[in-house]
Design goal:
Radius of gyration: 23 Å
Helix content: 25-40%
Order of helices and strands: HEEEHHHEHEHHEHEHEEEHHHEEHEEEH
Strand order of the largest sheet: 4-10-9-8-7-5-6
Strand content: 5-15%
Number of helices: 14
Bound molecules: pyridoxal-5'-phosphate
Shape: globular
Distance between the termini: 14 Å
């Protein structure tokens, strides 16, 4: 690079540092950080900005899991029915918390399986090709597992995925898709669409789609809409019920801190309950009142739990409950408020460094995540940040993703990212040794 090093405004930086300190001081959620296990290196806490990948472990998770183990050892299978917290009620005890986070009615949620499995189950119920109406609208840069699920399911039906799937391409070089492009595509293919299936937040760019507007366009077109909320659940405000989304699925190990590979969730709008829905069935989706009569014919639960297949895994539900109890205690509104403030700080402190060496590919509409694209030397910048204690994520070929979250990150950590990145940029791009 021929340019001179940028002159960084030291006053501004000092001012931002003071601001970060005072925001932390006034942060009503600051004590919640103590409820999480923060990874350390050489006795120092690392700066964990990977809430979008694997949320940190609540200190209470071990206790919640041990309680299940104790029940198991003390009462065996009786634990389903006896004691203060019988296992039979554990699944339902999580619904209110998730309903708040997703903007659903509690009976529209079912906690089950993992995300990709749930996508398959939802496709069975909600991909209903009929006549000319057989296409599925997806984004080009959908998460690979979503693409594999849809393509393999179509092949299973004997259909050609390349014929059925309509991919929305981004018009922008930075990968963001305009809501209007999606709405236009829905209108353009009105008579052919059976299903719109999109990620509410794109895992790569961090862009949050205007799900309300897209859902409304899908309804006007007379097709169904499903959302993958892996990067949205526990991150941004959702109103799945009011938006009339038909179904949604998510995993609980990213922003929801439920633990690696933990149990996922689905939303099925109540308009689809009890409607003679096609589905793959299992005994745990059978009406609770008749489940143990062991009848031959499936009698579906009158709500989203009709999609359950198997006995709920109590250890995983307990791990998820440990985290959701923290969300409840902190308050979803307060979490969203802090997230909004963190977003402003990231914009001012981190995005202000963009331009010459990297660009921020995450549009304004987003949650916690920021994705920085480095045309050159991104890996080197990433390695240096990592060496400085930042746990962030590198996506080939040239993107650094970071996602500080309200429950356990601080404003000072965000400022430190700004400060460290600034120094690393100067070093990497000007002091090549
Ligand atoms: C994380 C993620 C997945 C992963 O699915 P699992 O089945 O839980 O491994 C799938 N889709 C999206 C969009 C994701 O972000």
């Amino acid at each position: 690079m021929a340019e001179e090093p940028e002159v960084f405004d030291m006053d501004k930086s000092a001012e931002w540092k003071a601001l970060a300190l005072s925001l932390d001081e006034d942060d009503v959620l600051r004590h919640f950080r103590d409820q999480f296990k923060i990874p350390e290196k050489d006795g120092r806490q690392r700066l964990y900005f990977l809430g979008n990948s694997l949320g940190l472990q609540p200190k209470s998770t071990g206790t919640y899991i041990n309680n299940i183990l104790d029940q198991w050892s003390e009462e065996g299978v009786e634990s389903f029915f006896v004691g203060e917290n019988p296992w039979s009620g554990l699944h339902d005890s999580l619904l209110a918390s998730l309903a708040k986070i997703t903007g659903a009615l509690p009976h529209e949620i079912s906690i089950m399986n993992q995300l990709t499995v749930n996508i398959h189950l939802m496709l069975v119920s909600f991909y209903r090709p009929e006549g000319r109406r057989r296409k599925i609208l997806m984004e080009t840069k959908a998460f690979p597992s979503d693409q594999y699920a849809v393509r393999s399911y179509l092949e299973h039906l004997g259909l050609d995925p390349d014929e059925i799937i309509l991919e929305i391409h981004s018009g922008s070089p930075l990968n963001a898709i305009e809501t209007s492009d999606i709405v236009d595509a829905i209108q353009l293919h009105t008579d052919e669409l059976a299903l719109v299936f999109l990620g509410g937040i794109n895992y790569y760019t961090g862009q949050a789609l205007d799900m309300k507007m897209i859902a409304s366009a899908a309804q006007k077109a007379g097709c169904l809409i499903g959302l993958d909320l892996a990067h949205a659940a526990g991150n941004i405000a959702l109103q799945l019920h009011d938006w009339q989304v038909d179904f949604a699925c998510w995993c609980s190990y990213k922003y929801l801190n439920g633990g690696p590979g933990t149990i996922g969730g689905v939303f099925v709008h109540e308009k689809h309950h009890n409607s003679g829905q096609k589905r793959l069935a299992g005994w745990w989706g059978n009406h609770a009142e008749t489940r143990f009569m062991m009848n031959k014919i499936f009698d579906p639960s009158p709500d989203a739990s009709a999609w359950q297949l198997s006995t709920p895994p109590m250890l995983l539900l307990a791990a998820l409950k440990a985290s959701l109890d923290i969300f409840d205690e902190a308050g979803w509104e307060r979490i969203l408020n802090k997230q909004e403030m963190m977003k402003q700080c990231m914009k001012e402190w981190i995005e202000s460094l963009s331009g010459q060496y990297f660009s921020c590919i995450t549009p304004e509409a987003r949650g916690c995540q920021l994705s920085l694209l480095f045309p050159e030397k991104g890996r080197e910048v990433y390695d240096r940040l990592f060496a400085e204690g930042f746990m962030i994520d590198w996506r080939e070929p040239n993107v650094i993703r970071l996602a500080p979250v309200p429950l356990y990150n601080t404003f000072t950590e965000i400022w430190r990212f700004h400060d460290t990145l600034k120094k690393i940029l100067a070093d990497v791009f000007h002091n090549q040794s």
